[in-house]
Amino acid sequence: MAKAIKPTILVVNDDGITAPGIKALIEVMQEIGQVIVVAPDSPQSGMGHAITIGKPLRLDKVDLYEGVEMYKCSGTPVDCVKLAVNVVFQGKKPDLCVSGINHGLNNSINVLYSGTMSAAVEGAIESIPSIGFSLDDFTLEADFSATKKYIRQIAEQVLNHGLPQATLLNVNFPNTKDIKGIKICRQANAKWAEEFDERLDPHKRKYYWLTGVFQVNDQGEDTDVWALEHQYASVVPVQFDMTAHHAMSFLNSWKFND
Amino acid sequence: MAKAIKPTILVVNDDGITAPGIKALIEVMQEIGQVIVVAPDSPQSGMGHAITIGKPLRLDKVDLYEGVEMYKCSGTPVDCVKLAVNVVFQGKKPDLCVSGINHGLNNSINVLYSGTMSAAVEGAIESIPSIGFSLDDFTLEADFSATKKYIRQIAEQVLNHGLPQATLLNVNFPNTKDIKGIKICRQANAKWAEEFDERLDPHKRKYYWLTGVFQVNDQGEDTDVWALEHQYASVVPVQFDMTAHHAMSFLNSWKFND
């Protein structure tokens, strides 16, 4: 009997290649496939879909975990995916792209700000089945153990069934040992209400720290916010056609002069 | 007769506060409202929806153009909008947020990578009617003169009619003196095919420049790519609910074990 060929799995993140979250994700992916890691050499949280245009990129092999081919990249999470596809895989695409596990939630509107999710979006743009994983714990001491069986199941389902074209998954976990199960959700309507912390530097010049409060404007029980509040893992299918199709007829009613 | 109160207009960009494109946009906006500029102190192209988390932000008043209140910001285009709303406007929102005019197109998938468009998205998240403007010319010598009458009309329409909730506009102009008119479009299905330019530094270490070719996989005549190719200005309504609603039932058919 021929030995089954293991799927190739690209692992990326935004917290940097030494983060505990990516180590946990690598461990799960090693159970089901051949893992190649391309991750930022420094933390890239909040980098969204940024790419590096004005300066060159470094990509260097590193040897952190036994039996895992790993590269650190000087760029953003999206740069990592682009370099992985073009330089590391040389156009031969991986069977799966997983991003995370992020230290901190990427539910709701955070999908826009998150480097973790933007890396997964970039994987999907490259027609690779892609998933972003995040846990509701910002600390370096975050405990990812309860998430692992769900991550494995979700990754296996994606490998078995594929995903609809131009669609990826945004998976978020509550910070509990007792995850109740998985809910397929929509992105909740929520936003950050910023509160800039204004300070003076030693030279008496002002500077600002960005802080904020997460505001949920959505009572729905079909949202990722609801699922996480009720101790479920939330799975949101994500697409990257930003067109507001529902607004077309309204705009077409406007009159413009030549 | 009471004097009509002019609308307040926040102007932002991603090419930096000294770019010719933002000067052109300021000139148009001064015709219709009271302009306040908050723009990056350095070029921020390709920054997408990045925000600055790990370091503080600077925001300093500058005096570049007569009669215009202007601030330069050390952060990303999205940071600029957040600081504008919270520190400059102190929660009293502007009537309109315009971003650009970008030196280079932001049509199709570029809406994800573009700092110009992400600033407009952030404006919309803040419930401010928002528009991003871009011209198909990357150079500093770009000629924005033909775009001005369209920019004014589109801005006035948005001020008069408003926009549907959580919707903004992505406006792109062809690089021609003879713009044929305005087309309401959807985002074309296209992507960048990367071609990394591998080089050796003086110490014989490899580095990479990100380059690429824009690949359009869309024959539709209702897209922004089609409109621009045919010398029309493209107007795409944009929304930021990334949920792939069409994929819900497929995902709900998956079986997970407890």
From TrEMBL, chains A, B:
One of its GO terms (cellular component) is cytoplasm. Its main location: cytoplasm. The keyword Heme does not apply. Residues 9-193 form the Survival protein SurE-like phosphatase/nucleotidase domain. Binds 1 divalent metal cation per subunit. Belongs to the SurE nucleotidase family. PANTHER family: 5'-NUCLEOTIDASE SURE, PHOSPHATASE, PUTATIVE (AFU_ORTHOLOGUE AFUA_4G01070)-RELATED. This is 5'-nucleotidase SurE. The gene is surE.
